[in-house]
Amino acid sequence: MNNNKLNVKTAKRLFGYIAGQNKIQFALVLICIFLSTMANVAGSLFLQILIDNYIEPLLLEAAPVFDGLVRAILTMAFIYAAGVVSTFFYNWLMAGISQGVQKRIRDKMFAHMQTLPVRYFDTHTFGDVMSHYTNDIDTLRQMVSQSFPQLLSSCMTIVMVFCAMLYTSIYLTLFILMTITCLILVSKKVAGKSASFFIRQQKSLGDVNGYIEEMVSGQKVIKVFCHEDEAKEEFDKKNDELCRNASSANTFANILAPITMNLGNLQYVLLAVFGGLLAVNGIGGLTLGAIASFLQLSRSFTMPINQMSMQINAIIMALAGAERIFRLIDEEPESDDGYVTLVRIRVKESAPEEYRRVREAGTGGGDELPEQIPAEFVEETVERSGIWAWKHPHETGEVTYTRLTGDVRFFDVDFGYEENKIVLHNVSLYAKPGQKIAFVGATGAGKTTITNLINRFYDIDDGKIRYDNININKIRKTDLRRSLGIVLQDTNLFTGTVMENIRYGRLDASDEEVRRAAKLANADGFIERLPDGYDTMITGNGANLSQGQRQLLSIARAAVADPPVMILDEATSSIDTRTESIVQRGMDSLMKGRTVFVIAHRLSTVKNSNAILVLEHGRVIERGSHEQLIEERGKYYQLYTGAFELE
Amino acid sequence: MIKRLAKCIRQYKKDSILAPTFIVGEGALEVVIPLLMARLIDNGIDKGSISSILQIGGLLVICCVASLTFGALAGRHAARASAGFARNLRHDMYYKVQEYSFANIDKFSTASIVTRLTTDVTNVQNAFQMMIRMAVRSPILLVFALFMAFGISPKLTMIYVCIIPFLGAGLFVIVKYAHPLFERTFRTYDKLNTVVQENLHGIRVVKSFVREEHEQEKFGEVSCSIYKDFTKAERIVAFNMPLMQISVYTCMLLLSWMGARMIVGSRGMAGGMTTGQLMSLISYAMQILMSLMMLSNFFVMMIISKASAERIVEILDEESDLQNPNPALTEMENGAVSFRGVSFSYTKDPAKLCLKDINLEIRSGETVGIIGGTGSAKSSLVQLIPRLYDATIGSVEVGGRDVREYDIETLRNEVAMVLQKNVLFSGTIKENLRWGNPEASDEEVIHACRLAQADDFIREFPDGYDTYIEQGGSNVSGGQRQRLCIARALLKKPKILILDDSTSAVDTKTDALIRKAFREEIPDTTKFIIAQRISSVEDADKIIVMDGGTVHGFGTHEELIEKDNIYREVYESQVKGGSGDE
Predict the structure, then answer these.
(1) What is the rounded average pLDDT of the residues B38-66?
(2) In terms of DSSP bridges, do strands A341-347 and A378-381 run parallel, antiparallel, or are they unpaired?
């Protein structure tokens, strides 16, 4: 029941998409379908007229005159022509409408997906989300372009034919209503049975596909262990199960057509007998001609019903798909109440000396520079002035400009991915502009979590995070993230050239800037050795590159973005130590003047940090420089000397 | 191609033949039924004869029941045949993939194999079902209906004969213009999927660089080109229905006009045309043209599934490039390994060698460390030992015999390898470990885990050895996964054990314990250890330093420190960075 209600809601919403966008076009489609249906129904009525009004009387005449017949046929030809033209028009219009609906839904879905919080992607598998764009949209296409107009025209046909039937004979109409009800009940039963098997088939198809995915992905391991036979055995079991379910599901689907068709035929016979009896016994004032035409009408009546029953499966599947799509579109987007924005500024010539000094210093810079610049000395600009500032409108209407320097502080931060499951307890830390802060600890200690809070992938439960002395909740998310560069352990590259991939960090970077960034990350060497150098196409997340090379590219990508704060989450884990020590040099120059957060497995990577924070079970248990921590002989010392296991 | 696919029908041959056979019956009845219906009107209703109504009605009921039976049987067999055909296809492909060598798998790529086994099979299954139902039904209906119509009036049948080529040509033109557009949109769809997929995987990158709009633009571009092409294609297809209607309506009008004249003209004469016959002719017109329409749909479907069928056949026809020798050695004497003038290329192209002229002698029971930079072909070197790939030039010998002389299963059971890309499968820890040896007792499993230093953490899990591993081993950490994979390999009790960077996520201390356990517990096994860390290899009997596909240095730690500049550099970079990098 609940399910039905949901379907109705989804259907309504989908209808809104179909009809809503271009109302005139849709109205035209309705009119054209109406005309086309009319022509079709007129065709089946015409036969009777032809026989009753023309052929029969002509048969009685000694010298038949065909003038009337010619006129009738010409009239009919005219109606048909109108029908054909309308048919063409609505099909033509519908092609545009159905593709438009698809495009709008697709675009909306993708656009909305971009606004969803990272949490959404944690809780939904990629395969599931992907299938919205493939399977669900595809069934939708079939429904909108085929089932929908068919449904409309079937409904119209039914109404028109029903009127004609009522006009011909009320008794027979009642009779036909009864038989039609039976027909509908039977096909509903079969369709229901078929649907339940289809669901089972879908489930075991998912099962088999999942198994194939897992096994083929691990195919090399299977080979190394000569485990082929076992892998085959399990596969056969699942495959046979799928075969059984698919066989049943399709059997019912295939049977539906002969059943409805022949029930329609049976109804025809019953009607003939019943009508014949009525006519012969003179009940209801039926003429024989009327019965004959009624029989024709009854065929025109059952035909669209059959067609509708064929479409039911497609429609149910499409509605289920549409519902899944709408669920994605209705998903709550990432909230953003930030009003502090990041702007490029220029300090006016008229400003006092202390503010003008900012101009030379650029981003970052020393402590002696003023943090805030009064609004009267500031000029916002779109050019690359080299100075970024947080534009902070206050309630009083006053606007202040705070220089972007990269000062990050945590005050007693608590956080949990799920409610009641706190993973970070009471974390406080500070990173002054230009400092390198490292996080060390076992997997699950909360290192990555901390960095995810700085860029607000997740929001903290308690405490405060301040960025350049502004509460990060007040900063607009896009601006906050623009000021942070991030290199993740799982590198993600996009299909496109090497150049485009690096430029992803800053879209307006020139080729020269891209090359410079690549040189900085020490990626230049291997890029030049690629077949097409910087124009080499990267496909399949860089399948043609080694993991180490991918990491170098993503470092270059962050370098070109040139942000004041960088987060390196195991950014060099797959680069061999010899290469790393070279990269490290590049990284050091990259990190110069920036606030950097580093997460690394290799302690050699973090040794030269200004502060190292050792995390355990979401708490900071030690902090200090390398020397201080060695001195302390705590956990860090144990890790460093290899006396303790890190995971 | 069709022949190759037809081979997969096998035990469903009966169903595949029965289905169309029943459809012939159903089709025949479908033609007879309108004829009887016309009779019912002519002889029953028009003449007001209840007895004829009952008689013909009875006959009709029998026909309906028969048609229903045929239809149902056809449906059942068609469903069974197509489901079975798909089952066999999947079965054959999957079995074939199991035979593949590493080179074969690389050639197709995992993702492509999976698509072929899933989406493509479904496409072909649908096409097959349509084929055994429609491919017979439509021509049968066409022929029957034409035949019957001819029986009624050869002259009027000429109308159909004129209209059919017109409709056929029209449909052909539509398909011809629409098909390339459809093909193009399907290819664009692939692009769209790539954009979505990359966006999903890289959502954190997208968000941190605030590239949402950029991504939307990228998506919008592809989406728009799909919209344009698809609309164009569908607008061409929009000619289908009106074309059909023109044909039907023209038939009807011509039939009405000529039929009426014939009826009136032949009135009273025996064998003259009746109104009932005229109506039958009109139903046949519908049937004939409908079946033509079906046929054209069928061809479109065939063309669409052709690409899928080709991709399936590619999998089936791919020959594994590793053949089991005959006769094959099933015993391995010892774990000695030697490389004799080995060069290797993944593409078998001597110009693109990734290993060049390797000569090495390793005695049974030795521990060999292998070290080298990213891309120095360390993995390629060891993959030749269990014959995951064959050497392009030269030979690899194990236990004094060329690896190509061994039975592959024997060879791989004796040479255990822990791959760089470790994979655990969904199932309990114990089940995963028993991949190494299905008959291993619990004690043996635990012993192997002790050696791999995995026993402790396994016991800490609530379910111990029965802990369920999620797909891909996502619920254990990287270091734990590596140790489980080592334990799994140890259970084979191999003569040669290869660890391809398999302790990178394990801390130095545990790493040392694992090596100690190897030394003490399996001294006779030859061990190859590829590592990034000098500490993992420095106590090995021999160390190979790889550089750019060649052996740059070969000797003990002390010798290499002395002679090999790369080794010395790596050593210094790591010692300077702290004694351990963990």
Answers:
(1) 82
(2) antiparallel
Burial label, B155 (beta-carbon count in 10 A; 0-12, 13-18, 19+): exposed
- B154-272 in CATH: which number? 1.20.1560.10
Chain B, nearest residue to A79 by Cα: B249
Residue whose pair of structure tokens reads 């044909």 in the numeric block: B247
For residue A206, tell me if it sits in a domain. no
Contact A646 B582 (CB under 8 A): yes
Pairing of strands B427-428, B393-398: unpaired
Closest by Cα among A72, A49, A55, A73 to A290: A49
Taking contacts as CB-CB distances below 8 angstroms, the residues of chain B near A222 are: 98
Would residue A205 count as lying in a domain? no
Higher-pLDDT residue of A217, A100: A100
**Dist CA A468 CA A480 (whole Å):** 11
Taking contacts as CB-CB distances below 8 angstroms, the residues of chain B near A502 are: none
Per-residue CA distances from B207 to A405, A595, B434 (Å) = 21, 20, 43
User: Same domain, yes or no, for A398 and A306?
Assistant: no
A319 and A423 share one domain? no
Domain count, chain A: 3
Token couple for B273: 């045309």
Quote the pTM value.
0.77
Between chain A and chain B, the number of residue pairs with CB atoms below 8 A apart is: 437
Q: Residues A316, A447: one domain?
A: no
DSSP-derived secondary structure for B450-505: HHTT-HHHHHHSTTGGGPEEPGGGTTS-HHHHHHHHHHHHHTT--SEEEEESTTTT
**Beta strands in A496-594, from DSSP E residues, in sequence order:** 496-497, 537-538, 565-569
Domain range enclosing A568: 415-640
Q: Is B205 on the interface with A (CB under 8 A)?
A: yes
Same structural domain, A564 and A629: yes
Domain pair B154-272 / B351-420+478-576, same fold: no
- The whole-number pLDDT of residue A558 equals 87
Q: What's the pLDDT tens digit per position in B277-310? A: 787 788 788 788 778 778 877 877 777 778 788 8
Domain harbouring A28, CATH code: 1.20.1560.10
On chain B, the residues whose CB falls within 8 A of the CB of A455 are 207-208
CB contact under 8 Å between B256 and A50, yes or no, is yes
Q: Which of A189-198, B251-260, B359-368 has the highest average model confidence (pLDDT)?
A: B359-368
Environment class of B304 (CB within 10 Å of its CB; exposed 0-12, middle 13-18, buried 19+): middle
pLDDT score for B582: 35
pLDDT of residue A77: 92
CATH number 3.40.50.300 given to B351-420+478-576: yes
Q: B1-138+305-318 maps to which CATH number?
A: 1.20.1560.10
Give CA separation, B512 vs A291, A417, B506, B580, in Å. 97, 36, 10, 11
Residue B69: the pLDDT is 92
Task: Let me know whether A441 and A302 are in one domain.
Answer: no
Computed over every residue of chain B, the mean pLDDT equals 84
Poorest-confidence range of B429-438, B476-485, B557-566? B476-485
Please, which residues bridge with residue A623 across strands? A613
Q: Please report, for residues A107, A331, B375, the alpha-carbon distance to residue A320 in angstroms, rounded to integers and kept in the order given.
A: 19, 17, 49
Choose the closest CB to A219 out of B87, B105, B206: B105
Q: Of A275, A295, A330, which marks where a domain is finished?
A: A330
Contact between residue A560 and residue A508 where contact means Cβ atoms under 8 Å apart: no
Asked if A536 and A387 sit in the same domain, the reply is no
For A477, residues 6+ apart whose C-beta sits below 8 A from its C-beta are A334, A336, A338, A456
* pLDDT computed for residue A198 by the predictor: 79
Q: Which helix (H) or strand (E) holds A219?
A: helix A219-224
Cα(B45)–Cα(B42) distance, integer angstroms: 6
Q: What's the pLDDT tens digit per position in A536-562?
A: 888 766 666 777 788 888 888 888 888
Range with the lowest mean pLDDT among A487-491, A521-525, A552-556, A634-638?
A487-491
